[in-house]
Amino acid sequence: xxxxxxxxxxxxxxxxxxxxxxxxxxxxxxxxxxxxxxxxxxxxxxxxxxxxxxxxxxxxxxxxxxxxxxxxxxxxxxxxxxxxxxxxxxxxxxxxxxxxxxxxxxxxxxxxxxxxxxxxxxxxxxxxxxxxxxxxxxxxxxxxxxxxxxxxxxxxxxxxxxxxxxxxxxxxxxxxxxxxxxxxxxxxxxxxxxxxxxxxxxxxxxxxxxxxxxxxxxxxxxxxxxxxxxxxxxxxxxxxxxxxxxxxxxxxxxxxxxxxxxxxxxxxxxxxxxxxxxxxxxxxxxxxxxxxxxxxxxxxxxxxxxxxxxxxxxxxxxxxxxxxxxxxxxxxxxxxxxxxxxxxxxxxxxxxxxxxxxxxxxxxxxxxxxxxxxxxxxxxxxxxxxxxxxxxxxxxxxxxxxxxxxxxxxxxxxxxxxxxxxxxxxxxxxxxxxxxxxxxxxxxxxxxxxxxxxxxxxxxxxxxxxxxxxxxxxxxxxxxxxxxxxxxxxxxxxxxxxxxxxxxxxxxxxxxxxxxxxxxxxxxxxxxxxxxxxxxxxxxxxxxxxxxxxxxxxxxxxxxxxxxxxxxxxxxxxxxxxxxxxxxxxxxxxxxxxxxxxxxxxxxxxxxxxxxxxxxxxxxxxxxxxxxxxxxxxxxxxxxxxxxxxxxxxxxxxxxxxxxxxxxxxxxxxxx
Length: 672
Hints:
Elements: H1 5-8, H2 19-23, H3 25-28, H4 31-58, E1 60-65, E2 69-75, H5 90-99, E3 104-106, E4 112-114, E5 117-123, E6 128-133, H6 147-158, E7 174-179, E8 182-186, H7 194-197, H8 205-208, E9 231-238, E10 244-251, E11 264-270, H9 273-281, E12 287-288, E13 304-309, E14 313-319, H10 330-338, H11 342-348, E15 354-356, H12 363-366, H13 379-388, E16 392-393, E17 399-404, H14 422-431, H15 453-465, H16 467-470, H17 485-495, E18 499-503, E19 505-511, H18 514-530, E20 533-539, H19 541-549, E21 556-562, H20 570-573, H21 591-602, H22 606-623, E22 626-632, E23 634-639, E24 666-671
Parallel strand pairs: 2-11, 19-20, 19-21
Antiparallel strand pairs: 1-24, 3-4, 5-6, 6-8, 7-8, 9-10, 10-11, 12-23, 13-23, 14-21, 14-22, 15-22, 16-17, 17-18
Helix pairs in contact: 10-13, 21-22
């Protein structure tokens, strides 16, 4: 290899040159040789740096690092950051999830794992559960967390004076203190789902024990919570009117578990989705979720990443089998099932972001066998079932049924001024409403069972209205006010006819939310193609739950139900849950189904539970007390700067924070 000429000019050193000698090198080089020298020097240094950096990157890896702040936007405002009441709203539930801890918790796949406890035992075939607490847990104010806190929390929920919405799942559960850090739960019957109860977040006894029930909802601690979770309250910001605009949580330095990497989380609160969407577009928030799936189209090209969490929740039409004469007919319910196009509903209303379902146990989520028989969309079969039920389609496209009836009452006696009793009561009822009467006949409309002057005047008006049939046979021109033969015959004809026309009409109630209203209108259109006249009634969620669901005052109800990590449909379909506070919204009753639900809940064998629930689903679907419409993932949009979010199954939206410890914003490199 031939060396460059300038290298040949270098003197042959017997020892390493001094600094002054190195300076002489450039005096012996030509301009061209100097350029060549510097080129070689740059190449040498570049190669050295490349080798060093290549070695560094090959032997190190980027890992999450503590630090950073996260801002989330939510619709609504905090009111009860309190596990006793936290289930009332999504906002409160989110905050409770981050500030408090439970005996058990959910992991990223929806499995139940220990949180405050280090060990638990299931004894007496599932009737007794013993739990042993971690002894290093302290509250955010420095007090030790003990068995007394768990006992206080559960007994508070069990006490009806506190009006906790969670009371139903704790009724009949006995709790016994074994030691300062261990407890025993005793159940009346074995339960395969009781561990789910233990995900309840725990309240500090020393903070709340002296607050009476009537002051519990009013306590300042509902907005200044003391918890044992990964975060603690840092500050709350309010506007001039006192409305909470934002709330900031910071890392709980006393947290017993793995500390979260994101040091601070701030929630911004909005009146509605429109305001939240505007804030997201302005990049004021880094994470949010929306009720209307179509709104996500606004962010497809944005720097938000979509995370889909599987949610064991379904929406259905629940038929009130005791409220509607029409829906009490099984063939009518089957016809509506066959006449409902679920795929159209999911495509149009959900923007194809939901899945049509056929079963209340969600086999596609829990891995059960699908039902043996389902109601595939078949409009002709639906019409045939309606015709078999006697509902004939008229020229206007609506269906009616002629129903013969034998009246339990007929007017048989003469009535006049001064008469009393049941006959007078029925007369007044008859004259107070159409077709026999109304305001023009009987303006007062009072039902007194006494034949007074007002009743006589009403009878006269009635007689003169139908003078040809009542008065003319007797040669009278004016009413007499006496109920005799011809008057009785006309009253019986109008008020107690031998047959009546029953129109195929259905009233559908739901929540006043854009998505559910759109779903309801789609169903209305589909059912009216069958000849079923459908009216939609909407209510805000509080009114719906308090005045409609609680009293079971509806014919059909479009609503959602949420299963647990371990599916337990008993609260929704057992006959003992027909009345409030039960959640059997169809008022469904089947002894065999009841037995299967009880056996499934009590069995600790997953295979046995699956067999019982699969058999139950087939019985229920055959009885058609509902139309199972769709399930929908929980879609969560988060800035691409937020990493470590693991998608999986969550039992409610707040559980997206179950593995908040894995979320991170900052990273650094470490040696492998």
